[in-house]
Design brief:
The relative contact order is 0.21. By secondary structure, this protein is an alpha+beta fold. About 40% of the residues lie in helices and about 15% in strands. The protein has a 4-stranded antiparallel sheet with strand order 3-4-2-5. A two-stranded parallel sheet has the order 1-6. Strand 3 and strand 4 (about 85-90) form a beta hairpin.
Length: about 190
């Protein structure tokens, strides 16, 4: 929408699947390829076992410490969205047990309305088919710099052309807070 108004960004970032939008708008992937990849990514993820996600109002270190308090639970840190906002992902029972730990420590949390435990090990069976799909995608040069929410650093053409990057991006923690920090350090234009 902003582009249609003539507003050209100096840089872009997209949260999780939104990173494909940022790379597409930057010219790094065609709209047709991006739509095909995102649709297939979603289809693959929907075939995985159902699960749950919990937004937690605490810093990453505290969330990880609370997760360590129940080591037998298969939980993953799905996202770090801000200095005091994380998301934990896993099977329903594990998320319930984690919520109990948070309640005992009086840490605010709320369940997310989602059908699956995205950015968790529950997505692992989707990784190889997704990587295979990416072999047919042509990536190009980005005209607007983009920040990775996988690494929190600037994306390179080598990153976006690497199927390993996008496979890790589907599975690993969304480092949105780090990406925003990188954008904040961008020199004024």
């Amino acid at each position: 929408l902003w582009l249609s108004w003539g507003i050209k960004p100096d840089a872009m970032v997209g949260h999780s699947v939104g990173e494909f939008v940022a790379v597409c708008l930057s010219g790094g992937i065609s709209l047709d390829d991006a739509l095909r990849v995102v649709a297939e990514r979603g289809r693959l993820m929907q075939t995985m076992p159902s699960g749950a996600m919990l937004a937690v109002r605490a810093p990453e270190e505290k969330v990880l410490a609370c997760m360590a308090a129940i080591p037998d639970q298969p939980l993953d840190l799905a996202a770090v969205n801000g200095p005091q906002l994380c998301v934990v992902s896993g099977p329903d029972a594990a998320i319930d047990a984690f919520a109990d730990v948070l309640d005992k420590q009086k840490i605010a949390h709320r369940p997310l309305q989602t059908s699956h435990a995205f950015h968790s090990k529950m997505m692992d069976a989707a990784l190889d088919p997704f990587k295979e799909l990416l072999k047919d995608v042509r990536f190009g040069k980005m005209s607007v710099p983009c920040v990775s929410t996988l690494t929190g650093e600037w994306l390179t053409e080598e990153d976006i052309a690497n199927s390993d990057y996008w496979t890790r991006q589907l599975r690993q923690t969304v480092r949105f807070a780090d990406a925003v920090q990188t954008l904040a350090k961008m020199p004024d234009r």
